[in-house]
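Internal ticket - ligand job 701, (S)-3-Hydroxyhexanoyl-CoA:
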Amino acid sequence: MKGTVHYEKRGNIALLTVDNPPVNPLSGGVRQGMTDGVNKALADDEVQAIVMTGAGRAFIAGADISEFGKEPQGPSLFDCLDTMDNSSKPIVAAINGTAFGGGLEVALCCHYRVIAEKAPVGLPEVKLGLLPGAGGTQRLPRLIGAEKALQFIVSGDPIPGPQAVELGIADELAKGDVVDDAIAFAQKIVDAGGQTRRIRDESAKLEEARKNPAIFDEARKNAARRMRGRFAPEKIIQCVEAAVNLDDFDAGMKFEREAFGECLNHPQRAALIYNFFSEREVAKIPDVPKDTPTQKIESAGVIGCGTMGGGISMCFLNVGIPVTVLETDQEALDRGIGVIKRNYDIQVQRGRMSEDDVAQRMALLTGTTDHADLGQADVVIEAIYENLDVKIETFKKIDAVAKQGAILASNTSGLDIDKIAAATGRPEAVIGLHFFSPANVMRLLEVVRGEKTGKGIIATSMKLGKTLKKIAVLSGNAPGFIGNRMLAQYTRQAGEMILQGATPYQVDSVIQKFGMPMGPFQMNDLVGLDLGWRARKLAGMKPEDVPITARVADKLCEMDRYGQKTNRGFYIYPEGSRAGQADPEVIDIVEATSKELGIKRRDISDEEVLNRCLYALVNEGCRILDDGIALRPCDIDIVYINGYGFPQITGGPMFWADQQGLDKVLDGVKRFQAEYGAPWEPAPLLEKLVKDGKNFASLQG
Ligand code: 3H9
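stdout (structure tokens):
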């Protein structure tokens, strides 16, 4: 069984130290050790109080989530907590570090709590599709009141030590070493008669909520706004209601336990816990071991101060890394820097940042029109428009000025990194760092490894992602990398379906109902329909050579309907609004285009819309795995959730496909192949997995 609990005596105090590196989750060995430790202290007449703490950086990170869905070993957490709750000797928690979920619930089962200043406490179960299932929904309302408890548990957001004391979760903030202070605290309790204080026996704080049931309506409204489609928040609210209304601790615990079971068995829980582990798994690259030496990134150069370059600069400024940003002339530079400043000012207006914060960030930003000023940057990121020849020229210039050892990165969203690298005398220093728009908001960073990219450069880039508070996923170098290569198949299906009989509004509505923030046509309007249209014109493409799926968008552009930027695209946007309205004229254009192309329109069901969009993603995802562009299915899922808004509660396209059953997905792909031909040829990996009775989870290693 994983984990242990050390037992030592400090005078008349027993000190129990939970030890289960790196963050002390409540694995079987810990539950056993805690139960044994408390019983040993109870049996020892010399011991008058117990202090419980954690080894290393955490107190206890919560239940061992890798145990969920498996046969539990060792004593149950409930029995262990009962032993503590019923202890006749006072137990003091010395919260030395992270106390999350079951970890905080252990602390709430202690009779008193002393907390270190830097120790965060939280009940983040909701983020895993769960609820605090070891008494958290019953004890916390008794300790701090139902209204505050609801906010704390439904948000799942942690708070630091001083705030925990202010809120009443902890009794005392440690002034020195938290264990020493907790021992002193325990001694005071012993000296005053050794009184225990069980939260379960208190009910005064529940009274207020009984008089004000509106707090539950408010919690429901907040949950609907912030956690659309999630199963756990409503269950949490019901548990807190039970704490308030049942006024019988054991009945409340029974209610909580049943609700926890419902969450545990819900597919959202499986998806969210998969997501938790996937976010950590993507950092692991088999041929770039954890101990690969990395470089310090203390300054950055960004080439281009348009939407992407500006957003990328903000990412660095936000974490205190100075940036030199380059533009072609002073006017463009002033404009770009002005946009950065305006974006920060909006944050101030929304109360998310102070004027001082903005001043500090802007002081770290230097503008230039001279490449030589990028010479000292530890990383130089090119963020100019998507044209290989222009990027190659830019990299020649970077190569001439950048210091030796600098990382030379391109923010290309799909061009060949090797061709860019070959323009320099140091291809090993070149890598793709593909940020997603808006770069200062989106969590994903696609790190694209070229054929010659050095391992140290890869390791440093992955670490840089973390520094910038992003999730970095490694991709191989192939057109569109992971994300845009899959997106191309998805948008192709959307484009075909509107010509075959669906409307853009039907497609978008189906995708939104599935849980994406926007559908493909809303996304087109946001990005700008004119980008592709202009590129095709520049390339001298004849109208008859334009892919059929782009015909409608091009017609809209000919009418100056570029999307949100012109208040018209597939949708009409009333002045100042981002919420588009359907436009019958667009449907006329779509129908006329079908006619011109000789495509007979028919009714397309919502089910077909969803399956064609999603199966196209899954089939292409398989090819990406086959080609070795993504390391594992979870890398694809993390890319899609964090870069393209795929709903987290589904686990990502590959996890979703596993949940559907790969045989069902393959059947669908084959059906579409029979009807629509070549693009639907099943990926060999999909066929192989189904033939072998396996799924994507079997490839995770
Ligand atoms: C719960 O408690 C339910 C109860 O209410 C009721 C029960 C009946 N279990 O994140 P890191 C691993 S639900 C197992 O890189 P950091 C993690 O996978 C739980 N493993 O470090 C990683 O492994 P690896 C409620 C866990 O310092 C390693 O530890 N609790 C757990 O950046 C290091 O993690 C939570 O939701 C766990 N609970 O952040 C807390 N936690 O090295 C979830 C971590 O092999 N955890 N691991 O990749 C966290 O939020 C962060 O991990 C934490 C540390 C802040 C603790």
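Auto-summary: The longest helix spans residues 606-626. The first strand starts at residue 4 and ends at 10.
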